[in-house]
Amino acid sequence: MTSYTHQQVSVIDNAEARATLTDIGLPDTDVVSFRAAEEITIWDRDPDYAVVGMWNIDEIPVIVHRTRGTVHTSPPWSDAIDPLNASVRAFAESLAAVDQGRPLSEKRYGTDVNAGNQIHALLHAIDAETLADSNSFWQAVIDDIKVGNYD
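The structure assignment produced for this chain is given below.
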């Protein structure tokens, strides 16, 4: 787990997000190649957000709305800010759930669709509202799992 000090999370105004980052932290995992930031910084594209990590392969920032505590992604090739999770806690739990569901393969689940359905069920139990958004990052991951484009 990557945990942060109170000073390191001082750029985030949301008390629940700060508590999660200092008390629990973010999983150090290979799930969707997420890498927690060593230092939480204000996002250079919009000061309402702070960067808490990156999707390592594409260098997509994982950002937290500083006052609401919601978690998003924003690919550098787009102006869009896509929903990821309703809270930092839900984000940490989602990473852990996908990691525990691995390997996401036909071998384990019978079919890629079954693997995707299993991960969908886990993520739905954690953050149903955000997962219901067709533009959510996790929905894209589930779609990739269902067609076999995810390890």
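Interim note for the steering committee: The longest helix spans residues 112-131. The mean pLDDT is 92.
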